[in-house]
Predict the 3D structure of the following.
Amino acid sequence: MVNRDRHEITMEILRRARSATKKTEIMRDAGLSYLQANLYLAQLIERGLLTVDPERNFKTTKKGEEFLKKCEECPLIGWEKSDKEKLKSLI
C-alpha cells in the first residue's frame, strides 16, 4: 500500500461514509487498522464531519461533504504522487 498523508486518509473515510457505512467496511476499504480507524473516526465525529446513527453506521455530514469538496478542489492534494509518476516516466 502507498504511503498516504492524513488528508488523503480523511478524504477516503469521508468518501466511504457518504452512504451509511459500518466501521469494518471503512477499515477495509480505506486500508486502516482498528486503532487507526478509531482515532480517525473519533476526530472526524468530534469535528462534526461524521455522525453515527443508532445502528452504528457512519455517515458523512453536510459539513463533511463541504470539507471533502474543498479538499478535492485543492491543487496541492496528490501533487507529490503526480510528480513522482512524471519522473518515473522520464527515466
The mean pLDDT is 86. The CA atoms of residues 27 and 35 lie 10 Å apart.
